[in-house]
Structures are given as structure tokens and as C-alpha cells.
Structure to design on (476 residues):
């Protein structure tokens, strides 16, 4: 019987939640790496036993852990992330120029085809690649060297590269997003990059429709439609149908269009999910109600999904990498909260139930659908 | 030319690094003279490569900001890395303590 494995990164370790295809009963293992911040855990699409985890902490820095047996055992691999060439500067919060400095890995994106190839999005914003299972890492420096790099500045969480989308049609085509610079795309495997932010409007920057400077929170893409991208920006939910060349707003009837996550249904490329958060100064669900909003029309028209989710006195957040879907026929949807709950829906969002309630604050949720 | 003297050095790691290095109790290393922060940490990282980057930064080999080195009830964190460590550490009477700095309340 097929099953699912939910990979949860938290402020104090990683957890692996496993169930069969019914997704009623769950086995929970962890904490793995207790006491460490686990920004992201993700499995290889090419080998479900291969899983990578980003382990970091303020005292002892960054480690990358790798499992070759589906998360039962782990071994540290390479943790040396060195910027290529001239480090240069970017803007700090106060507008001063500061040198790029590696802090942590926010996001790990394994290759669609090769378990030993993996990309890492890091703070300060840069993209790294490993071709040897994480043993060594090399920067793709042209992104950081984009002509606008010196003007990038951190979002509230740091200047992080948090989204890496790989195009199933073409390994050379990679889309990334950086807070707070915006979205960038390469069509030549990282040799050159273009800012793809036309149509974004951000009132928090001096020129609201500038080429860069937008606080993109997350991007999502359905693998069968790589040219259609969905974006949860700081404010605004956006959509592009030309690979990011042009964006239009699809916030429609959302109660608020601030938020962090956006995800696409596994089998319906026009069905998307967001979790509206009150505002940039109040990172809690609108009106104290934890509601996932679903659009079955690719945006603009949204419906609240509430069955099984707390509808009063709920003041948690759902961070940018903390929602994922499985690929079973009825598409399970999962998300984690800063309150330590991981909710799952086995029916595309119609009903929800907590898989686990009292984990440390959840930073990321990924799902593997097991054969 | 005389051969360098080799010393037995004791190191106490913080809990997180003991887990990473799969170490129980103290780490005991043989280190040639002169015994300094740098030579001890070089030997530690050679024995336990997983600790590279966790105590000192990659590349610069500077102490990470929230790591401290204590010995003989003294804070050696700000001493030059090539200065000799106290005699009691060199003789093995006292361990070199690698400590995660206190932070928060």
C-alpha cells in the first residue's frame, strides 16, 4: 500500500511523520538533531530513501545532514558554503552597505533526477549546488552577482534565498526567490540570471514597481505547467503564466492577502492554497481563525477551508516553507504552525485534523509520497 | 634540531558538539608543541572533521561569535590563537573548555 512521509523542520529538531495511504494513523519519530534549528528537510524525487536536512544554530553554525534510509539514520555531510570570488556588499536594514555573509541554509531542493545533486538557498542570499550528495558545495555566483545585488536588503527574517523551482522540462531552467529582492530566473543553468518581477507592486519600497526589492515570500509551480507560477508576496497573491515574465494579482476575495505559503494541488494545476495572515505587523491568522483558502480557478475566487481547524482564539503563524501536498489520488494537504501543530487533510482540504499538536515551532513541512 | 614535544591535551566539548562528534566525555588529543588554541583546534578537527565550521568559521578559522574557550577559570576566547595555552592545559592537569556562550535569559 502506498503511504506518505511528512518531513517537519522545527526550531528544536526534525520530525518524521509516517502513515499509510489512509492517512488516519501516524507514526512520529524524532526529534532528530534535538535542540537545533531545522530550517528545511526534503527528500529526493529520484530516491525516496535519500533525504537532506538543513541543521543550524546560532552557536555552532550550519550542518547538512543526509539520510540514505528514509530518515531512520542520518550522517552529517559537507557544511562549507563559501561565496565565489569578490564577496561584494548588499544593503543592510539601515541602508548601509555590508559584505555578504553566510548565515544558514533556508531551503534544500534535490534534483528531480539525481539523488546526489541538490541545490541550497542560503542567507545571505545565494544559490549553491552539490553534485556529490552534499559532501561539497559550489556557489552559482552569477545570481548574487546580478547587477542589482548591491541594492538587495534583508526582509524581517533575513536576506534569504528561500524558494528554488526546478523545471521538469529543462534542468537549465531554475527559478528562485529572495527576500527582499524578488524573483530571479536562469535559463542556462545559472550562468546568467534575470529579475522577473514585472507586475509586482510593493508599497514598502521607494519605487513600488521597481525591478527588484520586492519581498517575495514563496513561489509554487505545478510540474505539468512549469510556466505558470503562483506567488505569495509580502502583501498580494500573484500569478504568472509566462514563467515569471509578467505577474498579475489574484488576491480576489481573500480576507487579507498577506501571508507566507502558497501551494498547488497535486493533480489540479488551477487549484491553489494559501493561509491568509492578518498583516505585516500582526503575523497571526485573520480574526483568530485558522483558515486555509483554496481557489479552484487559479486565483481571484477563494473559499475558506475550516473543518477541523480552530475557528477561535488561534494566533499562530504558518511560515513560507510549511505547506506541502502529497500525490495520492485525493491529494493530501499538510501545513505546520509556529504553535507546533501539523495539520493534515486527506481530501484536498475539505477536512483537517492535527497529526501532532505540540511540536516546537514549525519552520518547514515537506511530503514524500511513498511507492 | 630537536623534535617537538608531544603533549596530551584534554578538551571538553558542549553537548551539541559531543553528539555531532559522537564523543563520550572528554576528548583526549596528542598535540605537538607549541600548544596553542590553533594547534589544539587543528588537532580536534583532524580527529573529528564534522566539527569543522562549528567552532571556527570555515576559511578564516576565526572563533565563531558565540563560542568561548575557558581554561583554569580564565576566559581565553580573546587571546591570540597562536599564544601558548596555560601550562595546566599543556600538562593535561586541566581541560580546555569549549563553551557555547550564554545568551538570553
Amino acid at each position: 500500500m502506498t503511504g506518505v512521509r511528512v518531513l517537519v523542520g522545527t526550531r528544536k529538531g526534525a520530525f518524521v511523520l509516517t502513515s499509510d495511504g489512509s492517512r488516519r494513523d501516524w507514526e512520529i519519530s524524532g526529534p532528530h538533531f534535538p535542540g537545533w534549528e531545522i530550517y528545511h528537510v526534503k527528500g529526493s524525487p529520484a530516491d525516496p530513501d535519500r533525504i537532506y536536512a538543513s541543521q543550524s544554530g546560532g552557536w555552532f553554525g550550519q550542518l547538512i545532514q543526509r539520510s540514505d534510509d528514509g530518515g531512520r539514520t542520518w550522517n552529517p555531510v559537507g557544511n562549507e558554503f563559501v561565496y565565489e570570488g569578490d564577496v561584494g556588499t548588499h544593503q543592510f536594514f539601515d541602508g548601509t552597505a555590508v559584505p555578504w555573509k553566510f548565515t544558514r541554509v533556508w531551503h534544500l531542493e534535490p534534483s528531480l533526477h539525481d539523488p546526489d545533486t541538490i541545490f541550497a538557498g542560503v542567507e545571505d542570499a545565494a544559490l549553491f549546488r552539490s553534485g556529490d550528495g552534499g559532501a561539497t558545495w559550489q556557489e552559482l555566483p552569477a545570481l548574487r552577482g546580478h547587477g542589482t545585488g548591491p541594492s538587495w536588503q534583508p526582509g524581517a527574517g533575513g536576506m534569504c534565498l528561500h524558494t528554488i523551482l526546478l523545471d521538469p522540462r529543462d534542468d537549465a531552467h531554475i527559478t528562485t526567490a529572495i527576500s527582499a529582492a524578488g524573483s530571479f530566473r536562469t535559463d542556462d543553468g545559472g550562468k546568467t540570471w534575470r529579475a522577473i518581477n514585472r507586475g509586482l507592486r510593493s508599497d514598502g519600497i521607494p519605487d513600488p514597481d521597481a525591478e527588484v526589492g520586492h519581498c517575495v515570500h514563496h513561489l509554487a509551480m505545478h510540474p505539468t505547467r512549469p510556466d505558470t507560477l503562483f506567488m505569495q508576496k509580502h502583501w498580494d497573491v500573484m500569478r504568472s503564466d509566462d514563467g515569471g515574465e509578467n505577474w498579475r494579482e489574484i488576491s480576489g476575495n481573500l480576507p487579507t492577502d498577506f501571508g507566507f505559503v502558497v501551494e498547488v494541488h497535486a493533480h489540479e494545476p488551477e487549484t491553489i492554497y494559501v493561509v491568509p495572515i492578518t498583516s505585516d505587523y500582526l503575523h497571526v491568522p485573520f480574526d483568530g481563525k485558522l483558515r486555509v483558502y483554496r481557489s479552484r480557478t487559479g486565483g481571484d475566487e477563494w473559499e475558506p477551508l475550516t473543518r477541523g481547524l480552530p475557528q477561535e482564539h488561534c494566533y499562530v503563524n504558518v511560515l513560507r516553507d510549511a505547506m506541502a501536498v502529497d500525490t495520492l489520488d485525493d491529494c493530501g494537504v499538510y501545513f505546520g504552525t509556529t504553535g507546533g501543530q501539523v495539520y493534515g487533510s486527506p481530501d484536498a482540504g475539505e477536512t483537517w485534523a492535527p497529526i501532532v499538536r505540540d511540536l516546537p515551532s514549525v519552520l518547514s513541512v515537506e511530503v514524500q509520497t511513498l511507492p | 634540531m630537536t623534535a617537538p614535544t608531544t603533549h596530551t591535551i584534554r578538551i571538553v566539548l558542549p553537548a551539541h558538539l559531543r553528539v555531532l562528534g559522537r564523543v563520550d566525555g572528554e576528548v583526549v588529543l596528542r598535540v605537538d608543541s607549541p600548544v596553542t588554541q590553533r594547534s589544539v583546534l587543528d588537532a580536534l578537527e583532524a580527529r573529528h572533521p564534522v566539527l569543522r565550521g562549528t567552532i571556527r568559521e570555515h576559511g578564516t578559522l576565526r572563533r565563531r561569535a558565540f563560542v568561548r574557550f575557558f581554561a583554569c577559570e580564565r576566559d581565553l576566547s580573546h587571546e591570540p590563537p597562536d599564544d601558548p595555552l596555560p601550562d595546566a592545559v599543556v600538562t593535561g592537569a586541566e581541560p580546555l573548555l569549549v563553551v557555547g556562550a550564554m545568551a538570553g535569559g
Summary: The interface with chain A takes residues 14-17, 20, 50, 52-55, 57-59, 64, 66-67, 100-101, 103 of chain B (CB under 8 Å). Helices of chain B lie at 15-21, 37-47, 87-90. Residues 87 and 93 of chain B are 8 Å apart (CA to CA).
